[in-house]
Amino acid sequence: MNFNDVKNKDIKTACEESLSLAKASQAKLNAVVSFVEVEQQVKELSNKNANSPLFGVPIVLKDNVSTKGILTSASSRILSNYIPIYDATITKKLKEAGAIVIAKSSMDELGMGGTNLNAYTGKVNNPYDVNRISGGSSGGSAALVAQGVVPFAIGTDTGDSVRKPASYCGIVGVKPTYGRISRYGIIPYASSLDHVGYFTTNVSDASSALEVLAGRDDLDMTSSNQEVQAYSKLLDSNVAGKKIAILVNVQEAIEDTTITNSFNHIMNTLKEKGAIVEEVRMNDDYMKALLPTYYVLSNAEATANHSNLDGVRFGVREEGADLVEIMINSRTKGFSSDVRKRFVIGSYSLHVDNQEKLYKKAQKVRRVIVDELKTIMNKYDVIVASSSGTIAPLPNQKCGEDLSVSHLVAENHMLLGNFSGFPSMSLPQVMVNKMPVGISVMAKAFDEVNMFNIAKAIEEITGLENIVVGGDE
Amino acid sequence: MEKFSKEYFRYLANQIMFDLSDQEIEELQEDFKTLTKQMELLDKIDTSNVDEMIYPFEEDTVYLREDVVNHEITQEEALQNAPLVKNKMIVVPKVVK
Amino acid sequence: MNFETVIGIEIHCELKTNTKMFSGAAVDFASEPNTNTNEIDLGMPGILPSVNKEAVASALRTCYALECEIDPLIKFDRKNYYYSDLPKGFQITQQFYPIGSHGKIQIETELGKKEIRINRIHMEEDTAKQLHQIEGSFINFNRAGTPLIEIVTEPDMSNAKEAIAYVEKVRNMLYYLNVSDCKMEEGSMRCDINISLRPYGYPELGVKSEIKNLNSVSNVQKSIEFEIERQSKILLSGGQVEQATRRFDEASRSTVLMRKKEGAVDYKYFPEPNIFPIRLDANWIEKIKNTLPELPSERKSTYTQYGLSDYDADILVQTKEVSDFYNEVVTHTKEYKLVANWVIVEMMAFLNKNNIDIHKNPLSPQYLAIMVEMIQAKEISGKQAKIVFEEMMNGKDPRKVVEEKGMKQLSDTSAILTLIQSVLDANPQSIEDFKNGKDRAVGFLVGQVMKASKGQANPAMTNKMLVEELKKR
Prior knowledge:
The complex is a heterotrimer of chains A (about 475), B (about 100) and C (about 475).
Chain A: H1 3-7, H2 11-29, E1 32-35, H3 39-43, E2 58-62, H4 89-96, E3 100-105, E4 125-126, E5 129-133, H5 139-147, E6 152-157, H6 163-169, E7 172-175, E8 195-200, H7 203-213, E9 243-247, H8 248-253, H9 257-272, E10 276-280, H10 284-305, H11 323-334, H12 337-350, H13 356-377, E11 382-386, H14 405-410, H15 415-420, E12 424-432, E13 435-443, H16 448-462
Parallel strand pairs in A: 2-3, 2-6, 9-10, 9-11
Antiparallel strand pairs in A: 1-3, 4-5, 6-8, 7-8, 7-12, 11-13, 12-13
Chain B: H1 6-15, H2 22-43, H3 75-79, E1 85-86, E2 89-92
Antiparallel strand pairs in B: 1-2
Chain C: E1 3-14, H1 53-65, E2 69-70, E3 73-74, E4 77-80, E5 90-93, E6 100-109, E7 112-125, E8 129-133, E9 136-140, E10 147-153, H2 160-177, E11 189-199, E12 209-214, H3 217-236, E13 244-249, E14 254-260, E15 270-271, E16 278-279, H4 282-290, H5 296-305, H6 310-318, H7 320-329, H8 336-353, H9 365-376, H10 382-392, H11 398-404, H12 413-426, H13 428-435, H14 440-452, H15 459-472
Parallel strand pairs in C: 12-13
Antiparallel strand pairs in C: 1-10, 1-11, 2-6, 3-16, 4-5, 4-15, 6-7, 7-10, 8-9, 11-12, 13-14
Helix pairs in contact in C: 2-3, 5-6, 6-8, 7-9, 9-10, 12-14, 12-15, 13-14, 14-15
C-alpha cells in the first residue's frame, strides 16, 4: 500500500480496512501490541491539514512512541501497564498532519535487539516467510508495512533498527540525519545513537513523509534548526554527474553471489546513467570495530536511560519490604534476561574501574571511525552498500556475537550512519529465493535530498517499488 | 572479588538494581568471553591523542529555554500511572536514607 | 597533642527561577503536592531535558560575585544512582566542566580577614521531597527538577566560627544577588561539611568525614564541634579516622555514620548525551556581569564612605531589606549617621519587640528622612522624636504629629532668653549654688526652663544660654 492508494478511497473506509487487515494479520505476524480505534480520529480530521501527504493515511507507530492515553510498552513487561500522559512530538505532528494511527507495533524490548524475537508479546514473523525473523528492533512496523496493512509506519534506529528490518521485509526504511526528527517522547535506547525513522513502500512516499516529521523541537535540544527541505518536490532520479561510492569492505564480506551480482548490476546501470561510481575502502580494523564499539556505547547509555524504570512512579511494581527490594524485584521481573544481560554489559563498561578502557575507549574509536568516514563522504554524494549479506535469518540461526568478517562487517556496517549521524536508508535491492534483501544509501549530514534522489534512481533500476505481500494466508 | 565470577556479575547487576539467576550468570560468562575478544578489536585501534566522541555533531548550540511556565500536567495526570498513591502522593515502603 | 582542623564546605542552593532546571513546570514551594510537575520532572519514559536560561543567568551571577573563572561552554553530565526521590535514576549535573571555577571570597575572622578559595560552582537539579511516615515514604515531586547551584570551597577553614562566617557570608551574598531565598530552615540552602584533623605543621590532610545535609548555621557549628572532638579522641588514642559520610542527628547533637568509603556509590558519571554543549553568547554574559546587583561588600564600603562605623555598616548590610530601607531613606536626606542610628536602634528594636517581619515594616523611608531632618534642624528634640517615631510606625506623617502635639522646638533665642530670665529671677538659691560650684544647679534650672516652655525649648541652646546668663549674675 502507498499514499496514493489511500487518496483514492474514502478515508474512513480506508482506515477501517487497514485496521481490519492489521487484526487479520495478527495470527500470521504477531506484529501488533495495541490496536487503536479510528472513528474518533477520522471525525477530528476536519481541522487538520488536508494538504499533508499523510492526511487520512492509516499509520502504525512503534510501541516506544509515546501516545497519550494509549498503552506504550516498548514491548517490555515493566511498562506493560503504562499509559502515557503526553504525546511524543512526532505523535503530535502526525496527528496535525491528519494521519490516523491504527496500531502500536511490537519491537525488541526497549529497542535492544535486531531480531524482534525479544518482545513481551512474542516474536514477530517475517511476512515473506513466517518462519523467518522480521528483523528488529522495529520489526512490528516493518512487517505491517511489508504485509500491506499500512503504507507508513514509524520505527526507531539506534544500530540499524529501521534499515535492517526494511531490508529483511522488502520495504523502504529511512533513518534521517541525527537531529532531523525530534526524539521527544520516544522511549530511548542509547541517546547519542537513537534516531527516529520510518517505513514506506516507495522512495517518493519516503521523501514526502520526512517533510511532515522533520523540524526543530525545543523539547529536544539535540534537534536541528536546519531548514526542512521540500524533499518530494526536489525528488529527481537523474544521476548524471552524481558521485557514488561503493563501500567495498561490505561487498567483499558478502558471500551470496545473487546479492553481489545484483548490486553490481545496479552500480553499472547507475554508471550508464551518468553517475560517477567509485569503490572506496574504510580501514578494515575500523569496520570490524563497529559492532564492539556499538555494544559498549549503546548498552552503557541504555543502562542509564532505563534507570527510570523502577516501579515507583509508573509501570509494573513488584512487592518488596523496602524500596530497594521493590526496585530490584520490579526490574528483575520487569526486564527479560536478554535485556538484563545487556544492562550488565553497560554497568560493566561504565563502572568506575572500567570507564577509561571501555566506555571512553569506545567513544574514542567512534571518533576515529567517523573521522575516516567523513573524509570519504566529503568526496561523494552518497556511499552505497548492500544492507545485509543474507536474507532474513531463521530465529535459531546464530545472528549474535560471532567474530567473522561477514558478521562484523556485512551485517553491521549500517552502524556508520548512527555513529556519524549521517542520513541513511535502505530500499529493496533484490529478491533472493523469494526473500528480499535491501541496499543502503548514506549521504552527508542533512543532505537527505541526495539520499532520496539516488535511492529513487536505484528504485527505478530494480523496479522493486510498492511491493507488499498482501492477503492473510 | 574475582573478575567475571558469579559474585562479580551479581555485584554489577545489583549496582543497577536487579538480580540475575545462576543460569543468566553462566550465559553472561560466555557472552563476556566473546565480548573480551571483541574488545581486543577496539584495542587494536590507536586512539592516543583522540578525544571521546560524545555527540554525533559537535558544533556548539546556543539555545536556552526562556524561564516561562508553559509545560505542566495536572495532579491527576502526575499520579495516574503510579502503583500506590495516598494523600495525593506516591508512596513506597518507608526508606531511611 | 593539638590538632589543626581543616574544613571545606559544599553549599547547595535552590535557585529562585520561575521554572525547573530542565522543564517548563513551575517552581513553587507552597503549592499542593504533585501539582507543579510535568512528565520531565517525573522522569517518565521518553522525556528529554531543556536547559533553563534564567538558571544559567543565576549561576553566572553567583560566579561573578565569587570571582570565579567562567566556562562559557555549558556542558552537563549524568550522576547515576537509584532512589525514590530521583525520578530519572540519574541527576543531571556538571561533573566534568563546572560553569565556574577558581573563585574566592573574603570572610572576617578573629585574626582579621581571610580568603576562602572557591573550587567550583556548578548547576544541577534537585530531587523530590519525601515525607517519611510509619506507613511509608510519601513522595511529592514538586521540588523535583528545581534548579540548584553547588558551591564548593577548597579546604580553607580551620574552625566552626570560620565555617559559619563563610556560610553566612555566602548566604547573604546569594540573597543580595536575588538568585535564591537561601532559607536553610526550609531546605532551599543546605551545607555539606568536609572535616579532617592533622597535627599542627603537618603538610598532608588527614582522613576526612563528610557531614551531609546540614540545614542550619547552628547545626553547622554543632556538627563541626562534635566532629573535632570525635576525631581528636580517635587520633589521641592512637586510632585512625575512617573516611565516611555522616549526618548530624539533632536529638543527640552528634554526627552519625551513614556509609563508609568502601561502600561508596559508584555514580558512573558520564556526559549527558541529550544536551549538546551550549555556547553562551558573549554579549549576554557581559550584560549579566554589568547588571549584577550591588553586593553587601560594595554597600558596606559605600556606608563607611558615608562616615558610618564598620560596626554600623555591618549591621545594615547583614539584612538586605534593612540595607534597602536605609538606602531608600538616604535618597531623601544626607544625615547618614543619624539615619543609621534610627534604623539600627529604634526601627530594629520596634520590629523585634512587636514581632513584625521586615517585609511588613510599616515605617515610610521618606517620613524617617523628614523626621531626621527635623532633629538635625533642632526643630524637635531627641526625646520628642521618639514620640514622633512611635506615631510614624502607625503610618503617620511626622510633620502632622509635630503640629498636632504642638511639639515644634523653641529655637528662637530671644524667647528662650525671656524664659531663662524669669526662671533665674524666681530661683536665687540656685544661682547661689552655681556660684558655689554646684553644677547640679544648672540641670535643675534647665529643667525649669523646659517646663516653662512646655518642653519645646531646644535643650542644647537652653543649656548654653543659661550658663552664660548665670555667669553674668
